[in-house]
Amino acid sequence: MESQYALGIDIGGTSTEYGIVNKLGEVIYEFDFPTKSFNEPQELVDAIYKDLEDKGYLNQIFGIGVGAPNGNYFTGNIEYAPNLTWKGIVPLAKMFEHTFGKPALLTNDANAAAMGEMLFGNAKDVKDFVTITLGTGVGSGVIVNGNLVYGHDGFAGEYGHIRIIPEGRLCGCTRRGCLETYCSSTGVVRSIEELDSENKAFSSLMSMENPSAKNVFDEADLGDLFAKEIVDYTARLLGSALADYACFSSPKAYVLFGGIAQHSGDFAKKVKLFMEENILVIYKNKIDIRVSSLHDRNAAVLGTAAHVFWDLKK
Questions:
Q1: Which DSSP category does 204 fall into?
Q2: Which CATH number fits domain 125-291: 3.30.710.10, 3.30.420.40, 3.40.50.450, 1.10.10.10?
Q3: pLDDT band (50, 70, 90) for residue 1
Q4: Which CATH topology does 5-114+298-313 take?
Q5: Which of 64, 222, 240, 249 is 20 to 30 A from 276 via CA?
Q6: Model-level pTM?
């Protein structure tokens, strides 16, 4: 059968998910492996190859897209990813190309999410937007005039590590005050302990063992005043940051992705409100805050596959 599908792969610290995707953004087959079960990256490549060979998909794939932490599009390498057992520089794109005999590209997960939104999600109608991924950390994929911004070295778009509070919370990058220390799911949990409030002592969050960001948003929905303060605090910091970032690329939209964005429609509205309060007047009322439509689908697999389709189209 003529090659017609892209193979999308998302490599995370816990699991690796992959799928066969058609040009309509439909995942026709998907599977996953525990990433840590492979001591060497080539072992993972071989396992995916064997599975797709057994399922009869190999000859139907025309290209491979791989999303990974610290993935560099220009070099095709994973470079010093802190949450992977494979250390140093890993030439992963070349490994896939050599094993599969197909062209392969590598990018990071936030860039892949942006491509997925542009081809299959809530940004199909715009050419200038930024995807903001709100997960364990905060990532961003920047699209300008229909093209993904990589920078000279492949690492552009690290909005999560723009510092928003001088000498603020310590970040995993070793600096202080980064956006992701406040507006990621991890940052929301940190706010439980680190925010001062007269409502704190009466909050149900304080009686929970290891409360999560989801717990915070759930309790806020139920009327917990301290939880509502945390949600408002998170939305205010994110909205203010997005107001500043508008000066860089003047996007038509920010697309929020992740559990925090999806949990409640009110959060996106609050982010929009705080953004408009802080934005430069020339950008006021021009930028949408949208919530990803890919969240309940395998967005990472769709995003990496979308990158393959986009490169082919170009």
A1: G
A2: 3.30.420.40
A3: very low
A4: Nucleotidyltransferase; domain 5 (3.30.420)
A5: 222
A6: 0.88
CA atoms of 38 and 35, how far apart (whole Å): 6
Contacts of 60 (CB under 8 A, 6+ apart): 1, 2, 3, 4, 5, 20
Tokens of 142: 């920047």
8-state DSSP, 200 = G
**What pLDDT shows up at residue 296?**
65
Q: Helices 185-194 and 213-221 meet at what angle, rounded to 10? A: 70
Beta strand segments in the chain, E: 5-11, 15-21, 27-34, 61-67, 71-72, 77-79, 89-90, 104-107, 129-134, 138-144, 147-148, 253-257, 288-291
pLDDT at 108 over 90: no
For residue 299, pLDDT beyond 90: no
What b/e sequence results for 82-119 when a residue is b if at least 16 CB atoms lie within 10 Å of its CB, and e otherwise? eebebeeebebbebbbeebebebbbbbbbbbbbbbbbb
Q: Which of 64, 28, 62 is nearest to 45 (CA)?
A: 64
Which is it for strands 288-291 and 5-11: parallel, antiparallel or unpaired? unpaired
